[in-house]
Amino acid sequence: MQKAVVFDVGRVLFQWQLGALFEKLIEDAEELDWFLSNVVTEEWHYEHDRGRALADMVPERIALYPQYESHIRAYATRFNETVPGPVEGAHAIVERLAAAGVPLFCLTNFGDEFWQIFRPTQPIFDHFEDIIVSGVEKVAKPEPRIYEIVEQRSGRQGDALFFTDDNPANIEAARARGWDAHLFTDAASLEAALFEAGLLRAGR
User: Fold this and answer.
1) Given CB 3.0 to 4.6 Å as the disulfide criterion, which of 6, 47, 67, 131 pairs with 163?
2) Domain segments of the chain: what residues?
3) Distance between CA 131 and CA 150 in Å, rounded?
4) Spelled out in words, what is the top-level CATH class assigned to the domain 4-15+84-196?
5) In whole angstroms, what is the distance from residue 195 CA to residue 119 CA?
6) How far apart are CA 112 and CA 174, in angstroms?
7) What is the per-residue pLDDT across 99-137, written as a single tens digit (0 to 9) for each?
8) What's 102's DSSP letter?
9) For 12-39, how does the pLDDT look when each residue is reduced to its tens digit (9 = 90+)?
């Protein structure tokens, strides 16, 4: 069976930073840093990635930080503003792989509700055969179950899957299953790894 490439989304295909939204709402740099470290944090956001509903998360957070009610509500309604744009060079790699007929999948920690508003804005995802979204499955990387779901839905296991992700823990979880896993740092190093794996060739 032909080897497939599995992409992470955040910080691999697209830049992602909560501060991209909240720097528009909080002018003071120290306050912004405190807010992102204590109120709308990546750790709290991860609860939505794992399937927790915004309808539960947002009121709880507002109860803890009522002075930031409007900001917390903005988190729920303006998520796309936390995505400044694509990661440089990554989309070109996807397009080259797709043109070469390489099977493509995504495995992303992404809240279901946010995915529903983000996915329609990005035609790059049309190149992918399937996209496994943690918020839909209610299990997130690096938990083994979500890797099993990829294996089941792609029909592949072990080194028939080339996986790239920016999080070392997610890479280690993939390698534990025998996947060919590359820690993403930039498009150039990913391109080199894909050449080495025989998934890209010069001129394509």
Assistant:
1) 6
2) 4-15+84-196, 19-82
3) 9
4) alpha beta
5) 29
6) 22
7) 999 999 999 999 999 999 999 999 999 999 999 999 999
8) -
9) 999 999 999 999 999 999 999 999 999 9
